[in-house]
């Protein structure tokens, strides 16, 4: 009878810090530049070149540590991590080992409807390696693009607290959201700015000692993380059940075959020959500066959702949708804030109005890329449009029509209203009553249905009124008149 096994997973997430320049030089960090055009003697490691720490990178790393409950150290140091590989022109990587910036911490997230907390070992700062392009030009050669070399990273090392691929994916999604809302990382998996290594092992259920782990390197997709872990767990169980022994090694993931593959034997820390970098002084953060960074950090999604449901009257679902991306959250905040500042309606009504319109009309055309998002109409213009609807100078239907034209033409609400000749809503009961009586008389069958108790036919009459008035009739007035006149 086969034994039952427990999966043990620890993740090492590499997140590029959102800085304009590299960690130790002034080269830009723009993605997509021509190969080897964003390099200098420092990031290439040429003799005599000296590194200078990027202050903003260290601040962003500290902000991430504060948000994740780490102990942000008043003094941290950089080390040299020595190993030979084509993507390290210096022959070593500048990283942190003995004295990292952030120690401890945790991340709490949902797996389905169950809450789980995973401990963090540390969050340290290091430079990224260059990018190897294997089989360039269809041959056997490997070429190296050093543009990425020296880009600032934080490595977020978790405790081995995860027990399934599903938990690992949920952890990564939550971590990515946190870093994006902080403005620390752009969350762009396709560009490799958020990627992870997964340390995976299995052990018989009830055994306290960990099994031998393997490390799956550089996975840059939530789907692939889940698939790679599931495959590796199955592979390791198969090895043990056949009487074999799992070997500690580094493995890659092939998304075409759906399998992990051996790359090299796994090094331990002593194999890297860490030692303090003699060219870099300690990084010092005073208590006042740490507290200033804590106060200046943007709000996280769960904080926004709590505020929006309690203060702005949003449903939990609406709040979840509107915190799906930092730019969308900021857009909603600007629209709702402008409506609230107008003082025309209670805050909860302003929030609901903004949330409903953004979800129904604005989000259908929004395009996001990393931290950026493209909106067809600026938030200020949407707030102005919704103010007109609330004030009664436009009906809801007219507001949607005007918004559609604003999105396609780039004009403001006033220009679109003038160009289309949009009529002000008709709320004069005397003017509307004649039209409604004529519509009722022209549709006797539907009138009889209504009087027989089929009240859903009211919608038919509302539609007829709106057609006759070209959408200019005030909906509330129309409904009140119809309910009275249909009873006659």
Topology:
Blueprint: E1 5-16, H1 41-44, H2 55-67, E2 71-72, E3 75-76, E4 79-82, E5 92-95, E6 102-103, E7 106-111, E8 114-127, E9 131-134, E10 142-145, E11 152-158, H3 165-182, E12 194-204, E13 214-219, H4 222-241, E14 249-254, E15 259-265, E16 275-276, E17 283-284, H5 287-296, H6 301-311, H7 316-322, H8 326-342, H9 347-362, E18 367-369, E19 372-374, H10 379-391, H11 396-409, H12 413-420, H13 429-442, H14 444-451, H15 458-468, H16 475-485
Parallel strand pairs: 13-14
Antiparallel strand pairs: 1-11, 1-12, 2-6, 3-17, 4-5, 4-16, 6-8, 7-8, 8-11, 9-10, 12-13, 14-15, 18-19
Helix pairs in contact: 3-4, 8-9, 8-10, 10-11, 13-15, 13-16, 15-16
Descriptors for this entry?
Arc Repressor Mutant, subunit A, 10-stranded mixed β-sheet, 3-stranded antiparallel β-sheet, 19 strands
Write up this protein.
The structure is a single chain. The chain is elongated, with a radius of gyration of 30 Å. The protein contains 16 helices and 19 strands. Helices cover 40% and strands 21% of the residues. A hairpin with a 4-residue loop joins β14 and β15. The chain has 3 domains: 284 residues, no CATH class; 122 residues, no CATH class; 57 residues, Arc Repressor Mutant, subunit A, CATH 1.10.10.410. With 488 residues, it is α+β, with helices and mostly antiparallel strands. Strands 1, 2, 6, 7, 8, 11, 12, 13, 14 and 15 form a 10-stranded mixed beta sheet that branches. Strands 5-4-16 form a 3-stranded antiparallel beta sheet, with no helix packed on it.
């Amino acid at each position: 009878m086969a034994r039952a096994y427990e999966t043990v997973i620890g993740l090492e997430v590499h997140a590029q810090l959102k800085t304009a320049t590299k960690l130790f030089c002034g080269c830009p960090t723009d993605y997509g530049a021509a190969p080897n055009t964003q390099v200098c003697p420092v990031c290439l490691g040429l003799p005599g070149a000296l590194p200078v720490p990027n202050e903003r990178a260290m601040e962003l790393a500290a902000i991430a540590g504060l948000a994740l409950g780490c102990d942000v150290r008043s003094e941290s140091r950089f080390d040299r991590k020595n190993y030979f590989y084509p993507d390290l022109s210096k022959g070593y990587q500048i990283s942190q080992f003995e004295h990292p910036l952030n120690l401890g911490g945790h991340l709490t997230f949902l797996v389905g409807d169950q809450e789980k907390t995973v401990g963090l070992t540390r969050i340290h700062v290091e430079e990224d390696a260059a990018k190897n392009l294997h089989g360039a030009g269809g041959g056997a050669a490997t070429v190296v693009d050093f543009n990425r070399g020296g880009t600032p990273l934080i490595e977020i090392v978790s405790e081995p607290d995860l027990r399934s691929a599903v938990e690992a994916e949920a952890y990564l999604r939550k971590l990515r959201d946190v870093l994006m809302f902080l403005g620390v990382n752009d969350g762009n998996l396709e560009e490799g700015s958020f990627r992870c290594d997964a340390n995976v092992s299995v052990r018989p259920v009830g055994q306290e000692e960990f099994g031998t782990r393997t490390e799956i390197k550089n996975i840059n997709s939530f789907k692939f993380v889940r698939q790679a872990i599931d495959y590796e767990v199955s592979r390791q169980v198969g090895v043990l059940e056949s009487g074999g022994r799992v070997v500690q090694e580094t493995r890659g993931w092939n998304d075409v075959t759906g399998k992990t593959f051996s790359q090299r034997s796994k090094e331990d820390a002593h194999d890297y020959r860490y030692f303090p970098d003699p060219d870099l002084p300690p990084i010092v953060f005073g208590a006042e500066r740490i507290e200033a960074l804590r106060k200046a950090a943007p709000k996280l999604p769960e904080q926004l959702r709590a505020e929006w449901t309690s203060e702005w009257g949003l449903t939990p679902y609406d709040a979840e949708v509107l915190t799906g991306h930092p730019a969308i959250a900021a857009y909603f905040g600007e629209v709702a804030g402008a409506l609230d500042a107008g003082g025309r309606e209670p805050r909860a009504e302003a929030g609901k109005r903004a949330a409903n319109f953004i979800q129904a009309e604005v989000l259908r055309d929004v395009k996001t890329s990393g931290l950026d998002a493209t909106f067809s109409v600026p938030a200020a213009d949407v707030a102005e449009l919704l103010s007109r609807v609330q004030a009664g100078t436009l009906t809801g239907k007219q507001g949607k029509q005007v918004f559609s034209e604003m999105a396609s033409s780039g004009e403001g609400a006033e220009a679109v209203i003038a160009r289309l000749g949009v009529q002000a809503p008709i709320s004069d009961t005397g003017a509307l009553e004649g039209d409604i009586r004529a519509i009722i008389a022209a549709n006797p069958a539907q009138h009889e249905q209504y009087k027989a108790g089929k009240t859903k036919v009211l919608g038919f009459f509302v539609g007829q009124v709106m057609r006759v008035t070209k959408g200019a009739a005030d909906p509330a007035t129309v409904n009140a008149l119809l309910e009275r006149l249909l009873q006659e």
